[in-house]
Design brief:
5-stranded antiparallel β-sheet; alpha+beta; 28 strands; about 40% helix
Length: about 950
């Protein structure tokens, strides 16, 4: 019996999913991503939508439905999905229950056909669980979710989201209420809200105890000329120093400063002025806009990397000199400014010796003396004499992290005793062993407060800098690396600003309150290449992306603190000194002896993992696999990136066939250019099925014929769904690879097996042919414009060449000029830019209406006026407007190939806006009798 097609194999409300995913990036408190940092998480909206769509039957697979009924039913399912992906509905039981009901209905149909028990859904498994978005959403949709990962930090994150909260559902809080607060009514403690409240309460208890123990190391400051004594410090701004390379200033340590700017906010500008007096220097604070703003912004830096100017002598300080001094242990630090809580926002104070002395007097009991990787791509500090994780922290920061960690362990014991008094079972069954009594409760509190310590480490490090435009701390992981920072900001844990302990407690408990799945779920440390779950599982997963992110290396930063706090609570998970790395499926050249060896390791390991996955997955349901693109992974002239091709090769080798691809765009806004390059969708979701063991072998020529026969219809469907042109190449891979991967092998003319790289090139060529096929249907003037644009863009070219090109189409250059799309003067011709088109143009009176100008005027109306204006024009264009959309795909393809980013954005924006324009167009007044008929 043929497998029932699932919704994800036929259609998705992709635009809605992308918008919800992008909006999610702006969600702050309560989002699970704020529970603990992890890199490249999938948006919850996308995760929820994908799992729902891979479970629910597409109406086309249901018997006895007419085409109209199929479309109606599909739109009903889309309506459920549109409600499901709204952030505010994340914990809306009514919305979730509608989705669960549809999933169960489809499962019962399948179970009736396969003889499986319809009473319980198949389990869900994500073998590369990472940040946990997919298992969390599977649990929310009613699955028993199983999350596994090799990385213990990832496993702990998943435990905190899907395993621990379920043990303490509807638990009333028992911790000490912070002074001055009132308790809440018992009816408010539903789901994980009570456990979250306890994390908050014990977090406040830790704060109060820490202030007693180490508060003296964070003195207040007097605000000069503002009448503010004893103001709380937000941060101390320090500069690293080296000895001046000028022999005349031997012994003088000079600052390495990337910027002297403290605040760039209008009306609140503040900056540091270095005052040099012979061999001495000091720092003065100004509360005004600097006259020499660029000089202030550049500090003592002279260029990229560690190149500086000596403040006292003016001598250049080379990067090699800085490295030499740093590696010899001669880097110092000098306080430059103090940021305090002022009467109306931030106040900036000059440094003082007392503040330096207090900071330097701090002593700590333990530090993470573990080496960072010697990999400057992700880790810069080892190049500058900071080889260990301990070197990333000042003495005062290590004192604070030690003190709060000690108190986390004390809070665990207090929580256990409080729980016994409250009436929880007085047993010794730990959280790790499945308990939910007093001991397990204390373990849970310690686990979440350990996450708070990790979040603080991200802000209490000498890799943190001061954000002058936002007047706040920058954390360590502003990107997926640990860079070197020269002038750093040291946070005050007891302030009310960014990075303080209570703020981090708030992030954690508010995220926990949203983790309220009711089905028992588990998170385990497993190697995806060798381990998994035996039952047939529903699988949706987000594997590592070739060499994009060094998860294991980066997560050591957090692991060293988690291990110190949790090694006795979850001993198996924290048995190693650092995160396991040898088996990590990332193509890291420094770890494997070179790029080629790293690629071989990746494809071998990923093939094993995908093969293991192929054996686990439930054969009646597709598996979904995410792949995240880097911008550098664009296809150029039909050649796909190594990472992308290698990843697809591993999937196909594992015995899976690809039946669809969906580009998921998860970035905010419509900006499609990053440093002059068209940005790709954030990730692509591949839909996979098991390839039958008796699949045929075919030839290259047959594969090419099948592409020509089948791909155009699939591409037309994608266009009708208004897939953005920037995503079209990725979306086309799905139907193209579905043809390629349904065969056991595609043989080249010499008998060798065709590679995925070659298949991708052939798919890309067929896409290009498809996008250019309509040119013969366009008016002659538009056909001329396309060919001219492809050769010259908006630049000018020879009149003679233009005339030859025009004559080949039975027209003349003069005719194209009269059509209003070309300019000809002094033997040169060029296409008119949109800004130069006739402002009074009216399609109703244009006797040479062209598809080219229709597209250009639509883009201009959209950019310069409004969507309503563009929709009004679209209605007046009628059939020509439909052709303008098709032309925009073709022109985007040309721009992408030529690297014309600005023009590419214009055509992409029109396609992205098309569904909205179509809606608005229906609201426009009817056209006058005799006007152009419409195709909408």
């Amino acid at each position: 019996m043929a497998k029932r097609k699932k919704l994800i194999e036929v259609a998705l409300p992709l635009d809605d999913i992308n918008k919800a995913s992008a909006r999610e990036k702006s969600i702050r408190h309560g989002h699970p991503s704020t529970l603990h940092l992890w890199w490249a998480r999938r948006p919850l909206a996308a995760a929820r939508a994908v799992i729902f769509a891979q479970m629910v039957d597409d109406p086309s697979s249901l018997p006895n439905l007419t085409p109209t009924e199929v479309e109606t039913e599909r739109e009903r399912l889309f309506g459920i999905m549109r409600d499901l992906i709204v952030w505010e509905n994340t914990t809306n039981e009514a919305v979730l229950n509608r989705a669960r009901k549809e999933i169960r209905k489809s499962w019962e149909r399948t179970a009736a056909e396969t003889g499986e028990a319809p009473s319980s859904l198949p389990p869900f498994h994500d073998p590369f669980a990472g940040g946990g978005a997919l298992p969390l959403e599977a649990q929310r949709l009613g699955f028993h979710a199983h999350a596994s990962d090799l990385n213990p930090v990832a496993v702990m994150i998943n435990k905190a989201m899907i395993e621990i909260p379920q043990r303490f559902l509807d638990h009333a809080p028992i911790g000490p209420i912070p002074p001055g607060e009132q308790t809440q009514a018992a009816s408010t403690w539903k789901g994980s809200a009570g456990l979250a409240e306890d994390v908050r309460r014990y977090g406040h208890w830790v704060f109060r105890e820490a202030a007693k123990r180490i508060g003296q190391f964070y003195p207040t400051v007097d605000l000069p000329n503002k009448g503010g004594d004893n103001s709380t410090v937000i941060a101390w701004i320090w500069a690293r120093t080296v000895e001046s390379p000028n022999p005349a200033f031997s012994g003088v340590h000079v600052p390495l400063v990337s910027s002297f700017l403290l605040s760039s906010k209008k009306g609140k500008e503040a900056w540091i002025e270095p005052i040099v007096q012979g061999r001495e220097y000091s720092f003065r604070i100004h509360h005004s806009k600097p006259a020499n703003i660029e000089e202030v912004k550049s500090g003592t830096k002279l260029g990229r990397g560690a190149q500086f100017k000596c403040l006292v002598s003016g001598t250049n300080i080379s990067a090699s000199y800085v490295k030499e001094e740093a590696r010899a242990g001669r880097l110092g630090a000098r306080l430059m400014a103090i940021v305090a809580e002022g009467p109306r926002g931030r106040s900036y104070c000059p440094p003082n010796q007392e503040a330096e002395d207090v900071a330097n007097s701090a002593q700590y009991s333990w530090s993470p003396e573990y080496a960072m990787p010697q990999n400057p791509r992700w880790f810069s500090p080892p190049d500058y004499g900071m080889p260990d994780y301990a070197d990333l922290f000042t003495a005062r920061q290590l004192l604070a992290l030690n003190s709060f960690s000690d108190l986390v362990r004390e809070a665990r014991n207090k929580a256990i005793n409080d729980a016994i008094k409250f009436g929880l079972a007085e047993d010794s069954i730990s959280l790790n062993d499945g308990g939910n009594g007093a001991t397990a409760f204390g373990d849970a509190i310690a686990a979440y407060l350990s996450f708070v310590v990790d979040k603080c480490a991200d802000y209490w490090s000498s890799i943190c800098s001061w954000h002058s435009s936002g007047e706040k701390m920058r954390n360590v992981f502003g990107r997926q690396a640990i860079p070197m920072v020269w002038d750093y900001a040291e946070c005050n844990p007891f302030s009310n600003s960014t990075g303080n302990w209570i703020a981090m407690v708030d992030w954690v408990w508010k995220a926990l309150a949203k983790c309220n799945g009711t089905t028992p779920s588990t998170a385990k440390q497993l190697d995806a290449m060798t381990d998994g779950y035996n039952s047939p599982c529903i699988i949706s997963t987000d594997p590592p992306y070739y060499d994009n992110i060094g998860y294991a290396d980066l997560s050591d930063f957090f692991y060293v603190w988690l291990r110190e706090n949790l090694k006795e609570i979850v001993p198996d998970l924290f048995s190693t000194m650092l995160v396991p790395k040898a088996e990590e499926l990332v193509a890291t050249p420094y770890r494997h002896g070179g790029r080629q060896q790293a690629e071989e390791f990746f494809i071998t390991g990923m093939t094993k993992a995908m093969g293991h996955l192929a054996k686990q997955h439930h054969k009646e349901f597709p598996t979904t696999i995410y792949y995240a693109f880097k911008q550098a992974e664009q296809q150029s002239e039909g050649i796909a990136s190594t990472g992308w091709a290698t990843f697809l090769e591993a999937i196909i080798r594992s015995g899976l066939s690809i039946t669809g691809t969906w580009p998921m765009r998860t970035e905010l806004g419509n900006r499609l250019v990053g440093k002059g390059t068209n940005a790709l969708a954030s990730s692509v979701v591949l839909v996979c099925r098991h390839r039958p063991d008796d699949s045929e072998i075919t030839t290259r020529s047959e594969f090419v014929r099948n592409l020509a026969d089948e791909l155009p219809l699939a591409l037309q469907t994608l266009q009708e769904a208004s897939i953005a042109p920037v995503d079209m190449a990725q979306a086309a891979i799905g139907p193209g690879m579905a043809i390629f991967s349904r065969y056991m092998k595609v043989l080249e003319n010499d008998g060798s097996a065709m590679s995925v790289q070659t298949a991708l090139q052939l798919i890309n060529k067929e896409l290009d042919d498809y996008l250019s096929r309509d040119e013969g249907d366009y008016d002659d003037w538009t056909s001329f414009a396309i060919r001219w644009f492809e050769q010259y863009g908006l630049d000018s070219g020879s009149f003679g060449i233009a005339e030859d090109l025009a004559r080949a189409r039975g027209i003349s250059v003069e005719g194209v000029v009269r059509a209003g799309i070309l300019e000809s003067k002094s033997g040169k011709v060029s296409l008119l830019h949109r800004d130069d088109l006739d402002p009074d143009w009216d399609p109703a009176t244009d006797d040479r209406l062209t598809v080219w100008e229709a597209a250009q005027y639509l883009i201009r109306a959209l950019a310069d006026e409004s969507e309503v204006a563009a929709a009004s024009l679209l209605k007046r264009l009628g059939a020509v407007g439909v052709e303008a959309r098709s032309l925009s795909y073709r022109l985007f393809s040309i721009c992408e190939r030529k690297g014309w980013a600005d023009e590419a954005i214009a055509y992409n924006s029109l396609i992205v806006a098309w569904p909205r324009l179509s809606e608005l167009m229906k609201q426009q007044p009817e056209a006058a009798p005799g006007s152009e008929p419409e195709l909408f």
